[in-house]
Prior knowledge:
The structure holds three protein chains of three kinds. Chain A is mainly α.
Amino acid sequence: MEIPMIYYVVVSTVMFFAGVYGFVTRKNLLAILISLELMLNAVDINFVVFNRYLFPQQLEGFFFTLFAVAIAAAETAIAIAIIINIYRNIRNIKVDDLDKMKY
Amino acid sequence: MEQIANHIIFFLLSAVIVVCSIMAVTSRRILRAATYLLFVLFATAGFYFQLDYHFLGAVQITIYAGGIVVLFVFAILLTSKLGEKSDRISSTKRAWGLAAALLGALICGYTLCTHDFFPQFAAGGEVDMKTLGHALMGMDKYQYLLPFEAVSILLLACIIGGIMIARKR
Amino acid sequence: MEYSLIILLLPMLLFFVLGIGGHKMSHRTAGLLGTGGLFVITALSYAVAAQYFTQPRVESIYPTLIPFHIEWLRFTEWLHIDLGILLDPISVMMLVVISTVSCMVHLYSLGYMHGETGFQRYYAFLSLFTFSMLGLVVATNIFQMYIFWELVGVSSYLLIGFYYTKPAAVSASKKAFIVTRFADLGFLLGILLLSYYTKTFDFAVLTSGEVSLAATTAGKTFLGISVASWAMALVFMGGAGKSAMFPLHIWLPDAMEGPTPVSALIHAATMVVAGVYLVARLFPIYVTTPEVLTMITVIGAVTALYAAVVACVQTDIKRVLAFSTISQIAFMMVALGVTTEMQGHGALGYMASMFHLFTHAMFKALLFLGAGAIIHSVHSNEMSAMGGLRKYMPITHITFLIACLAISGIPPFSGFFSKDEILAAAFEKSAFWGIWLSLVAGLTAFYMFRLYYNIFWGEEAHHEHTPHEAPKTMTIPLMFLAAVTCVAGFIPFGHFVTAGGCSYDIHLDWTVASVSIVIALAAIALATWLYMRPNDKPARMADSMRRLHTWAYHRFYLDEVYMFVTHKIIFRRICEPIAWFDRHVVDATMNLMAALTQSASYRIRTLQSGRLQAYATVFLLGALFIAFVLLCVW
């Protein structure tokens, strides 16, 4: 347990910005969703680490992560439902083709 | 001895997370990306175990690795042909993505490195299930019945919404 | 006499019923409904009059009754606008006049307007007019009067423009509305001045002498004229606009574009005497401002002469009657102007004015309705299309003749008595005005008989089809009004309506009377000589006074002067620069702002590309930028 806190945080930062890169560059909606999960996961790690290292008496970060996981599951389910619906309509899930809502 | 083992495990997990997350966002085969994500999620669960939050690690594995990734795999199989490679990313787009990611990493890294966290090292041990259960079902301070109920409503809404969106018209 | 409220509410109800549901009714139902309603109103008015004038006098004066009164709008302790019904001799007299004439016109219109499109609309407007005119005369306070004053203006506007597909009718209605509106501005200012100093709108308080305007404004002057005089002169301006006094008379001749029964009701008998009624209503205050009374006298006298001269040469029979109306109302105004006191001998003019208002309403309505019957049968307003009609339209002929004799002042018809009182009152004040009015009375006789002979005698015009007598619904009102004209002169009017309220016995001043009869007879004789048989004497006479004839025919070019002032001076010199400023500065600023916004948004709209990832990148870079800035600042 002698690992400094900063180690965890740096790893989660790398994970988060990998997610950012994927979110900005990927074309496939599912790939974007995967990037999103990465970002979410990085944030979860941060919550847990801060909880453990800075406020070990309380369990705020712990529960935040717990609920975030639940919500992420819900969000993913809905997002995939939407993506499948889109696929059904335009036979494609490329994000560039979804620009009906421009000006 | 235990310390060294801990460090070794930590660095292993870190390496898996860093490599796999980068691979997950750069792989041109979407099914592989999902697999890399699965590895990342497992390694994250490893982190939680290492931090003595065993319950959270279990949750991470069951929900994320067990539920969400399976969902991803199904969706991928439904929407793409096997072995299909996505198009190459255009260089401008990649430049923008890299710029955003590296700049962000730079700023965050700088902030983290210059900040002095205190205490540096973790204290406390295993959180027992009884405490967790009381915290989840209590209504006092640092107890979370209300968010719990809110999440249950959210999940219900999500179930209905998922059915509504995905059903054939 | 609480039922007097029904007199007001019934025509309003009729207006709403006919106005909203009229188009669903047949012409017959709408007409009968309106006419029947008016008969009820007339009966009620007569009942009110009978009850009012048979009640016992208090200290030899008929008491002023207020059978209905509510406070409508309350602004401050003393400034509140009430609605109510005020019954005193002149308002009761006006009730009788308005309901009688209106009833006759409703009946007459059944025949005259038969088969016209918009028949129900016509009756709705007539009801609206009747309602507002009745409301005007029974007003308890000057603000209520002003409200109804505007309402009669509106209904007059609507009825003049009844044939709204005719450009002439449209412009005439606009003209009437704008000119009277302009005059009403003066009226409103007068009301504000009056109520500012006396702290009340109420007629009862205003005229009681408790709050004397002259006393409250003592010492306050503007341009060397006392504020009381200003207020009363401004109020008179409103009256002058409605009563078509010179130089605000220009709308009345044009108002003849409306249907003829409307001219009879609004522009001869009732609305145009509203100005006279207003002055009479506020007369206790006018008495305290002699200079305003002098102004009224002068304006009235000038108008009377001017209108009489113009009437002598007009060829449109309705125009002749319109100018005759202007002239006769001016007579009433002069009669009020020469009144100098509330009691005694100097108060004769007030009674004479009211008497003339009463008789004039009857015989002028008769003249207009007769003219309507003639127009109805020959389909033209021009004298040249008429002539020799006496054989074809005997009833119209006789009744028209009676009215002509009445307006010329031949006994025993009603006009003689009232006009004689006016002349006597004028002579009382000064011989100058007496002679002036006698001269105008002679002109009146002349132009009326010129009209009469040109219509019923003279050369027979070529008719497309033989003229025929009007239907019963039109001749019955003619006969009724003719009968009233024959007997109205013998009503002991002085017993009912006088300035102070005390009974007054009318006794004819035979010197004045005989002179005026002689003048009238001479004028009639002249008209007979000129117009009874077709000859070239009128043409030669017109030739000998060519300039005067041309000028009078063109109404002394007053309309042109107005046109010049409004178009050339006001529009060109004032309005056009303002319009230019509005268009090129005010509007342009707004347009510029709009154009800038539009072009800017057109340019930047491509930012809304719909590409999710671009948005995310921009958002992230923005957040990073802010974080960076905060780091640097820290």
